[in-house]
Design goal:
6-stranded antiparallel beta sheet, 7 helices, 13 strands
């Protein structure tokens, strides 16, 4: 499984959270402590919001621990909202297009999880992507497919409802929830540059880890705790979504695609 980190609040230099702390995300690429896969060396990525309309994006196939360009960027960029990711591939080969974050317009998305037995369901899941966005699909991962498919359900207006509807459609595919099938797991963060939403859910009730803590005048979300100067870490409960504004204000609510009736297929968006 992968490791992710996201921050919303007062602008800070990115290395404050991504490089400096003991147990930082970059160090987790070499030695994660709360993941089945200790090494997350199949690529890394960073997305941040600055002064322009669309976010900045950096992705590379190098492991984060050996990527000097990533470190240099983190030491120079200051942002009040950013997402970062180190990858352990579960579906899709090792390539830049398969590295997170995935971007579309103002939106950034990072994911730790899987669609169980994705090779079996890939064609059906990709058919959920709106025709207008299918050409934007650059990679082959289940994560990117989920992200783009959610635009068919109004991601720009309501990312929580859109992702519930998207995952409900995936759960409704033949064989996804049959006895012995691998689970659908979804720990993820999505942002439009104004707010970020952090999700922790799984079809078997055992989603990948996700934590949050206050960080100065902001809020930090991460797959696992890293040492730092402020705040205590809180584990997000399974079946929830945490919304964080650029001012660091946050609130939590339930997230459960299993209770949603799968929407009808739409390819028109």
């Amino acid at each position: 499984m992968c490791r992710l980190l996201a921050y919303g609040g007062t602008p800070i230099f990115l290395d404050t959270l991504l490089e400096r702390p003991e147990g930082s995300l970059i160090s987790q690429s070499r030695a994660a402590r709360e993941a089945k896969t200790v090494v997350n060396g199949d690529g890394c990525g960073l997305g941040w919001y600055g002064e322009r309309e669309e976010p900045g994006l950096y992705r590379a196939v190098q492991p984060a621990w050996s990527d000097a360009n990533l470190v240099s960027l983190c030491r120079q960029i200051r942002s009040g909202l950013f997402l970062a990711h180190v990858r352990a591939a579960t579906s899709g080969g090792v390539s830049t297009n398969n590295c997170h974050p995935f971007a579309n317009g103002r939106h950034l998305f990072v994911h730790n999880g899987q669609i169980g037995n994705y090779a079996r369901h890939r064609r059906a899941v990709e058919a959920m992507i709106p025709d207008a966005l299918y050409g934007a699909r650059g990679g082959t991962t289940d994560s990117e497919a989920i992200f783009l498919a959610a635009f068919a359900h109004g991601l720009e207006k309501d990312p929580v409802s859109a992702l519930e509807a998207t995952l409900a459609r995936i759960l409704a595919l033949p064989g996804v929830t049959e006895a012995g099938a691998e689970p659908l797991r979804f720990s993820a963060v999505i942002s439009n540059g104004k707010t970020l939403h952090a999700f922790r859910w799984a079809s078997d009730g055992r989603p990948p880890s996700l934590y949050c803590r206050e960080e100065g005048q902001g809020l930090l979300v991460a797959s696992e705790p890293c040492e730092g100067p402020s705040g205590e870490w809180t584990a997000l409960p399974p079946g929830c979504v945490l919304e964080v504004g650029r001012d660091g204000a946050a609130h939590m609510r339930a997230f459960d695609p299993a209770r949603v009736t799968a929407p009808a297929r739409s390819r028109a968006a």
